[in-house]
Amino acid sequence: MKRVAFWVVFLSLSGALFVHQWRKNDPLLHHPALLELRTHYNILLLSHPHPEVASDAWVALWNLFHRKWQVYHALPAHFSDATPIHFLVHRERFPANPDMPALEAFFARPKPIYYQAERVYCRTVGEALMAILYREGKWRIDYRDDWNEWWVRNRAYYNH
Amino acid sequence: MDEPGAVAASRRWSNPKRFGVAALALVVATGALAGADALFHLRPMLAEAMWRAALASPIPPLQHEAIRALRQHATRGAAVSLVAFINARSRSGDLEPAVRATETLCLLSGRSFGASFQQCRAGPAWAKAAADEWPEVLERINAWAASAFGPAR
């Protein structure tokens, strides 16, 4: 009986410790072998019907794009993806302080695409991905209501 | 040497074995569903489908609960179901559930559709629209639904 109790307690504690360490360090989050898979997975989730899930995937892609060079070059391959998205991407000045130099950046909102908004900037997965790139703020030509035109005019700069 | 009947009986599954296989199949199916849910976020989709089915049911308490629960599911399907429900209830002259559904639709869409809402003192907040302004509200809802979910989209 004592032996059984020992193993139950030992396995429970070590399991809890393992889960805690896994969540804390998340070894698969930035593993290079899984980056491509993770990128494709989040691109797939961009078209999820629930806006919370899709906007979380957009934020995850934003983080991956700005931190991992593999993802930096992988996103443009999906710019022609015309799958509709179901969340809002809105545009705002960032930072909001008027005394500081600011960018006109795009941000995902966990709201449905039909939610009342000034305008809908992105309707497809490809456009939502271009909005992630736009956040860089180094583009020669500004976005003028046409994502494809914006990308055609700036793609050479992106490649270098 | 065993008789043929004894061999056939030994090959048949005993009850514990049958239950064991059923339990294993259940565990595998649960694991597969949990994995699919973790990967593709199926739970909100299933919950939404369930509440949309409840909205289409003829049981009023179930409909009220569905109208309330669909506030958590801001999807195209939920909005389309609510618009269909509002139209169906308006045609049958049953305005109270239609007005409740309109309140949920307003929350989902961020629009008022010209409806005036009042807060009840007791219980959860729910909407009342004056009967004379209802046709205009309904017209606005349908116009918005046609522009948001029509064939052009």
Q: Could you please describe the fold and organization of this structure?
A:
The complex is a heterodimer of chains A (160) and B (153). Chain A is mainly α and 160 residues long. Chain A is built from six helices and two strands; from the N terminus they run H-H-H-H-E-E-H-H. Chain A has two domains: 1-30; 31-159, no CATH class. Chain A has helices spanning 2-25, 32-45, 51-67, 69-74, 125-134, 147-159; strands at residues 87-94, 103-112. Chain A has a two-stranded antiparallel sheet. In chain A, helix 2 packs antiparallel against helix 3. The model of chain A has no long low-confidence stretch (mean pLDDT 89). Chain B has 153 residues and is mainly α. Chain B folds into two domains: 4-39; 42-149, no CATH class. Helix content of chain B is 69%, strand content 0%. Chain B has seven helices and no strands. In chain B, helix 3 (42-56) packs antiparallel against helix 4, helix 4 (60-69) packs parallel to helix 6 and helix 5 runs antiparallel to helix 6. The termini of chain B are far apart.
Computed Rg of chain A: 21 Å
Reading the helices and strands of chain A in chain order gives: HHHHEEHH
Order of strands in the sheet with the most strands of chain A?
1-2
Proportion of residues in helical segments of chain B = 55-70%
Query: Span between N and C termini of chain A?
Result: 69 Å
Low-confidence segments of chain B, given as residue ranges, are 122-126
Question: What's the overall geometry of chain B?
Answer: elongated
Helix content of chain A: 40-55%
Which residues of chain A form runs of ≥5 with pLDDT under 50? none
Distance between the termini of chain B: 77 Å
Topology, number of strands of chain B: 0
Largest interface: A-B, 16 and 18 residues
Overall average pLDDT of chain A: 89
Instruction: Kindly report the average pLDDT value of chain B.
Output: 85
- Summed up, the helix count of chain B is 7
Query: What would you call the quaternary organization?
Result: heterodimer
Number of helices of chain A: 6
